[in-house]
Design brief:
This protein has helices at residues 5-22, 29-33, 56-69, 82-95, 109-115, 134-138, 162-167, 179-193, 204-213, 231-245, 257-266, 280-284, 327-337, 340-350, 367-370, 373-377, 392-403, 409-424; strands at 42-48, 73-79, 102-106, 141-142, 145-146, 148-154, 157-161, 196-199, 219-220, 225-226, 249-250, 270-275, 295-299, 309-310, 312-318, 353-354, 379-380, 429-430. The protein has 431 residues and is an alpha/beta fold. The chain folds into two domains: 5-153 and 313-369, D-Maltodextrin-Binding Protein, domain 2, CATH 3.40.190.10; 157-310 and 385-430, D-Maltodextrin-Binding Protein, domain 2. The strands form five sheets. A six-stranded mixed β-sheet has the order 2-1-3-15-6-16.
């Protein structure tokens, strides 16, 4: 039977007490708290939701390295399509059987799964002893406990074509830092380089930098208030719409905005886009683009208040219904996979950004990682509530209406607020 939320916390607390007791006779309790790798024996199932062709081999290699240290812990690796994993995990966890012991969970899933009692609280365990980046770690916190650790983090940044910047008389080492500067750079790219200046993806996630830039957000969680249709957000969304209307930005393709953006950028037909580190390898490897050395990366441009972009990424979480006898093995696996060495390996192989701060010390010479430092500095947490995964369907509809169809931003955001109230956070107050 699946353990309840309270039982999951109790089980973890009990485990922590047992481990502490084992170390009570030694001055170095941290060493005593670590399970003996040779004594651990278990069979674990891990659902990995990464790209099965381009990313999975790196994680499978880490499993081999884990088994060099923990030879009697068998990890049953299963690649699960990202688009299916959220509901598949909930179905299995609610039935009490078939759920994986470890899951690679998108950041917005963790509060939801924790609220349902499906996750094992990691408080008091060695899995939480890593030096994790504060904002990515915050996505694992719910109701006073922590239910996961960051696997990789990401955010949005300004990507630009250095060669096109040079043709337009722009300094590739001094990219735009505000949307007003983006307008100026776009005009130069159009007039002197003969290309579109910037392409804005018509999707809700990609509109958040415009909202954050004016000091807005989707919700005020502390006040339990819906703020998506605030004056600040209307102002930010108006900036994005005006860029399309006046030709600063190319008009997005209604049917495949993201795909069109990436094709145009890789082919050198648009000078700037807003996107994340998951596309670095794709862009740099395209023969038409000119390699990583031609790719500029900077923090998202700022609005009148600040530069801000949403934090994204994935976390390692453990199922609360797992056999208690597996607890040590599952926690050892998470600790190993989230270690600085493991995350640095993934970064070197895939260009993904570590969630463990100490991994960056091992990557000081990796330009594909260090290029994102400015963007990470501008990253801010989304509202980490169980309903967080439901924000983006209405936001996506809004982005298309505003950028493609030209709907009034205030009207579009009011419609989102109505949907949030009716379907996402009905207990929150509307503005």
């Amino acid at each position: 039977m699946r353990r309840t939320h309270a039982a999951a916390v109790a089980g973890t607390a009990a485990l922590a007490l047992v481990l502490a007791a084992c170390g009570s006779d030694s001055d170095d309790s941290s060493e005593q708290n670590e399970p003996d790798p040779q004594s651990l024996s278990a069979e674990l199932t891990w659902w990995d939701t990464s790209d099965p062709e381009n990313e999975a081999p790196a994680f499978e290699e880490l499993i081999k390295r884990f088994n060099e240290e923990y030879p009697d812990v068998e990890v049953n690796y299963q690649s699960v399509p990202f688009g299916e994993a959220q509901n598949k995990f909930k179905t299995a966890a609610s039935s009490g059987s078939g759920a994986p012991d470890i899951l690679r969970a998108e950041v917005a899933w963790v509060p939801e799964f924790a609220s349902l009692g499906y996750l094992y609280a990691l408080d008091g365990t060695a899995a939480l002893e890593g030096n994790f980046l504060e904002t990515p770690l915050s996505s694992n916190e719910y109701d006073g406990s922590t239910y996961g650790v960051p696997q990789v983090t990401d955010t949005l940044g300004l990507m630009y074509n250095k060669e096109l910047f040079q043709k337009a008389g722009l300094d590739p080492e001094a990219p735009p830092t505000t949307w007003d500067e983006v307008r100026e750079a776009s005009e130069a790219l159009q007039q002197k380089a003969g290309v579109e200046g910037i392409y804005l993806n018509a999707a809700g996630y990609f509109m958040l930098p415009f909202l954050y830039g004016e000091g807005g957000d989707l919700l005020d969680v502390d006040a339990e208030t819906i703020t998506v249709n605030s004056e600040e957000n209307v102002a930010g969304l108006t900036v994005a719409q005006q860029m399309v209307k006046d030709g600063t930005a190319a008009k997005p393709n209604a049917s495949d905005s993201y795909g069109t953006m990436m094709t145009l950028f890789k082919e050198g037909k648009v000078g700037m886009i807003v996107n994340g580190p998951w596309e670095v390898a794709n862009i740099a490897g395209d023969p038409k683009f000119g390699g990583f050395e031609n790719l500029g990366i900077a923090a998202v441009p700022g609005g009148s208040e600040q530069a801000g972009a949403p934090v994204g990424g994935h976390n390692y979480v453990v199922w609360s219904g797992m056999d208690e006898a597996k607890a040590d093995a599952a926690l050892a696996f998470v600790e190993f996979m989230a270690s600085p060495e493991s995350q640095a390996y993934v970064a070197e192989e895939l260009g993904l950004l570590p969630g463990n701060a100490d991994a960056y010390d091992l990557l000081s010479d990796n330009e594909k990682v260090s290029a994102w430092q400015g963007a990470l500095d501008a990253a801010q947490p989304r509202p980490w509530i169980p309903e967080g995964g439901l924000f983006f369907a209405p936001l996506d509809e809004m982005a298309v209406k505003v950028l493609v169809q030209g709907q009034d931003p205030k009207k579009a955001l009011d419609e989102v607020a109505e949907t949030f109230k009716a379907e996402v956070v009905p207990d929150y107050e509307a503005q």
